[in-house]
Amino acid sequence: MTDPLRFSAEASSSRLEEILDGSERIEELSDTDNEYEDMGAATLEEQVNIAYLDTVRIPIRDSYATETSKVQDDTAEIILPYLEGNPNDFPLNAYGIPKLQRDLHVKMLERALKTWPAQAAMMDASRPWIVYWSLQSMTALGIDIHPYQKRVAHTFSLAQHPTGAFGGGYGQLPHLACTYAAVLSIAIVGGEATYQSVDRKTMWHFLGRMKQADGGFTMCEGGEEDIRGAFCAMVIISLLNLPLDLPQDAPARKNGFMTFTDGLGKWISRCQSWDGGLSAAPGNEAHGAYAFCGLGCLAILGPPEETLPDYLNLPLLVHWLSSRQCSPEGGYNGRTNKLVDGCYSHWVGGCWAIVEAVTGPSELTSSHLWNRSALARYILSACQEKKGGGLKDKPGKHPDAYHTCYNLAGLSAAQYKYVYDENVNKDIGIANLGAPYHWKSQGVYEDDDVVCDHEDVIRSIHPVFVIPYRSVYECRRYFEAKEGF
Amino acid sequence: MPVFHLLRDWLSAIILSPYRMLQSVLYRLNILRPLPAENKKMPKFYQDDEAWADIEPLPQDDGGMHPLAAIAYTEEYSEAMGYLRAVMANSEFSQRVLGLTEHIISMNPAHYTVWLYRAKTISELGIPLQDEIAWLNPTALKHLKNYQIWHHRHTIIDALGSSEGETDFINTMLGQDSKNYHVWSYRQWLVKRFVLFDKPEELEWTADMIEADVRNNSAWNHRYYLVVGGRGGKPNEELAKREIEYTKAAIRKAPQNQSPWNYVLGILRAAQLPKSTIKDFVLEFADINKPDDVYSSHALDLLADIYAEEENNKGNAEKALDLLATKYDPIRANYWKYRKGLLQQAQVAA
To answer: pTM for this one?
Structure first.
């Protein structure tokens, strides 16, 4: 039940599902089920988990069955054994939850950066994503990725298009999703030569061609206009410190727009759906991945406490985000009445830091809007792959770099207090789109309900750019110091 | 005869188990994996083709150093891409380019560059657009989760200026995946592009989709788009009443289904009606005086809002939120506490 939509131009998981033989997956599932059934009576840890699950379950069930409820029931049956017990036989932490399997995951990520077999041709246009997801996941797991610095610069110099921005690889047309992944990868590894490999002037012209008459952005020339375009464009302009003025040759100038941000907030507003969530484009269904894009975009346009209330119905948004947490699984789904999936640990879980920058903390309301520990449980218990490492959608699914990256980002959202504070980094982010440079991590949550040991805590991640804080600040600092293109 | 069946199953399990075990080991070792159908076709090479003799392909250039996440392309794919880069560099738009793009799409349907160039070629050559749609249909069915195919379709239908046959095609696609985001977004675009808001069949079809699965949120979203969202403006009283009654019937089927609860709130908001408009209905599913007989956590959620809007009824709103936090929706306890905090904040401010 992979969700039909990924943030990427093409998710590696759906592509790989087409490559891999389905029968193997089914076999894998039934194997683990049997192992679980063979375990006999519940251990003490299992009894504790079973009792916990009862405390987060909605006690109401409708008897009227439809396709949605059937698929949901089938899925719960597959997932629950992993939340109750430990069918993977992972070592447990002090809270009886599987420990984060760092070494296993790192090995899987190292493999993802190596050469893929011919069947992976389906990912030809998404190679920048594989690089970004893998490098970001490695840094989250505490791996030094500097040895990749030169190869990152080289990989993307091949994918940079003469007319500006990056494509999926050599000779491919420029695309905002590829450019987003390329710029983030370049920022993660850092270094002057790597930064210099980006042609910022042609990039600025390319972005100018993406700006549309209604305020939004298309993903490529002749391509679709959606909220990913808006978010990717803002991330790129902000990190590379590009001029906010539209180039003279930008078609949107004919519609009276002077800057990249003209009409953008209003366009994002139009993406808020009747149920409070955000959709790909005005009129479409609300969706978790698009919600993060919209909030990320607003958090770059200005301080969240100004931009969110200006452009969104905040109570309705919070209601919708909150409803995405699945009971009793604890992970998130992407849409109403859809299935839990580990990637929404970030797409929805990652929205909270931005929202909580507006709602809290105050004496009367807890700044704590969501169930962090339930999400951490889902990630550690149900999304870690035993065979070959990596994280995934849910038990029975194959792991990939995409799910590894966004499960880990979700885990960091569950572990850290990320705070917006204008006193942070007062020396940068004064000019163009400078708001996202004032975030900080205020350490790890230590409530009564934590489920992570010290060893399970990953590195902190910038809540808007989804790369390490240091990478964000070093990149912006470098381009702020640079004069001209 | 059950004894016989049991015996037969038991015997076959014993006899077949070594075979099954061997089979599963071989699958794991990738020895028995059946070849994908595409691999059985004869590969096509352009260097042997007279019609392409004038083209010098542009091969992939990795510039000496090994790029990250590279792909060991088949010779067939690699060669075809070399020819595509060459024709793109020459801005060639021709029948043979169409054939080339089709070939590459068959090997990699997720290649946006190829799709964009194909669309441009079609437009430059003035190819009959119906032919392109006829070619596109089976391709789309094979690759449900693909952005490029949908955008290409959008481009072609937009240029064609007719939505004829599109709804049938969409139905086929939704038959495979009734919540496919691309398909529903495409349908919303069709409604807008060809102004189908008032076409009775469109609303009837949407109602059928909701009837088939009342929990299909994509179908509810489409209904909202038809009735309010895509039109803009405030719905009149009669329309709001019709939608409220429609939603009530849907809620009665499965009260713990959040889609229609959200929907009715959306209608009330758009029509600028207070939430209390449906208070009596909500009380059928949740009543704070009967805390053990709650049939929908969403009703309790809405009841809290209705009480909060009433004069001097914050206490009841708090009771509803407490019930949600402690009993009916405990995974969101923090959120319900936050809502309670907002109530108190409002009281302090007043």
So the answer is: 0.91
